[in-house]
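>> Question from a student workshop board

For tomorrow's exercise we were told to take the sequence and the ligand below, predict the bound structure, and bring the output to class. My setup keeps failing. Could a helper post the expected result so I can at least see what it should look like? The ligand is 3,4-dihydroxyphenylalanine.
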Amino acid sequence: MKEKLLALQEAALAELAQADTQQALNDLRVKYMGKKGALTEVLRGMGALSAEERPVIGQVANEVRAAIERMLEQKTAELERLETERRLAAETIDVTLPGRSPAIGAVHPLSKVIREVEDIFIGMGYTIAEGPELEHDYYNFEALNLPKNHPARDMQDSFYITEELLMRTHTSPVQVRTMERMKGAVPVKIICPGRVYRRDDDDATHSHVFTQIEGLVIDEHIRMSDLKGTLLQFAQEMFGKDTKIRMRPSFFPFTEPSAEVDVSCVMCGGVGCRVCKHTGWLEILGSGMVHPRVLEMAGYDPAKYSGFAFGMGVERIAMLKYGIDDIRHFYMNDLRFLKQFARI
Ligand code: DAH
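>> Workshop helper replied:
Here is what the output should look like for this input. Compare the format with yours to find the bug.
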């Protein structure tokens, strides 16, 4: 019987050593230790033993059981460890793999310039105003001292939608809308960026749709020197602290006096180059003191209040600032062009 037990132990341990799944281990546990298992079977024969033999064989049987159980435990632990290792290996992440960077858009150069101009004027206490692109003839022309049949209307060839409605030709109607909204209160200090439309043939320097920024200040005692100081401050923040400005007499129906404003050439600093056509100066905006009739029509007493206004073309400023030679680039949505502004 002892030999039987030892043979059984040997067979069980050999089989257990081969087992490579939890399932196989379970099967072996049943096969040897189960109710109908081999060990149980042998032990059943114990009854036939003599009284002297029984404790001896009993001890051997216990040792065999313990040996098999130890082996089962050991194998279970080993298989669990292998399973964990296998899973970890399968889930390994290569942390040295370079990340996939998402495609990030760039701010359009016109938006960039608008933001920059806005920031400069916000720094001087202005707020941002807006108005509709589809505008009444009254706001676009009439209230800006451009009555019907006024020859100056020809300066701004318009897209009329109806007799009374047109695509605004400039951002100046926002001046009038702002003054109406303020109902005679001061100070008025706004800038207004926006899109404007003119019946122009498109070429390198003309576009039938373009962008302007309008400025308006109304208060008591506003003088031309305030306009000049403001524009000099703006030009130096926009183009560099050594920038100079000059004002040339001009005409706009909505300002009196009116001035065209030039900045010293951003390319050559005023020495003269191809960009400034060897004059040293670049024209960047129109401006003037708000015409008394415009103030009056919008509900401000010109005897008490005065103001200045200006209007600039955003495309022109962007072209000068970034050295862009064709206005059409702004509207073509060519990624090769737009991507260049991703890092500026
Ligand atoms: N609205 C004018 C234009 O589009 C630009 C302009 C000139 C605006 C003088 C002004 C101004 O506010 O005072 O040509």
